[in-house]
Design brief:
Layout: H1 2-28, H2 32-37, E1 43-47, E2 52-55, E3 64-68, E4 74-81, E5 84-88, E6 94-98, E7 102-103, E8 107-110, E9 114-118, E10 127-132, E11 136-143, E12 146-151, E13 154-159, E14 163-164
Antiparallel strand pairs: 1-4, 1-7, 2-3, 4-5, 5-6, 8-11, 8-14, 9-10, 11-12, 12-13
């Protein structure tokens, strides 16, 4: 009987030692979530999934207030809480999303009725095509009043005032 008590006590000690070691490792090594949360807010992100839920609070226990069905949609991250980000969408709605739904890929949504994409960053440059309101594309090379925008392989320069996302305007 005393042999069983010793084994049971030994198991508890091993479990406690394992938990203490895990806490020590977790406390000393930087974790990906910790590194991501060190980014100053606000910052820009985009949706990584074809379907992403915005919740009213920072947990899966909170109900969804919006379901987005648009990969690459830009959002502005306003607050960080663990693995959760409080975000604002292009229409101003705010809520919480899990970090796995977000990417640092710079994207923008066209806010103008039709935004000409030009072959160089100039009002006098030739328009290569027009992006309609609501079109989402990937941004690169923003400077001054212009950004390079790629909409499914169609590339050109768009005025910053015609888009929302990844720019301070």
């Amino acid at each position: 009987m005393s042999d069983r008590k010793n084994r049971s006590g030994m198991k508890r000690m091993m479990l406690a030692a394992g938990l203490a070691a895990a806490w020590g490792v977790a406390g000393s090594a930087p974790q990906p979530a910790t590194a991501a949360s060190a980014k100053p807010v606000p910052y820009w992100a985009s949706l990584t999934q074809d379907e992403a839920r915005m919740r009213v609070g920072p947990s899966l226990d909170y109900p969804s207030n919006w379901i987005y069905r648009r990969r690459d949609l830009p959002v502005k991250v306003l607050q960080v809480l663990g693995l959760w980000r409080k975000v604002q969408d292009p229409d101003g709605a705010q809520g919480w999303m899990h970090v796995r739904l977000l990417s640092d890929t710079k994207t923008a949504i066209v806010r103008a009725e039709a935004a000409p994409l030009r072959d160089s960053p100039s009002d006098t440059a030739r328009a290569v095509f027009r992006a309609q309101k609501g079109v989402v594309g990937r941004l690169s090379n923003c400077s001054g009043d212009w950004c390079a925008l790629d909409v499914k392989g169609q590339r050109g320069y768009v005025k910053v005032s015609d888009i929302w996302g990844a720019t301070d305007s």
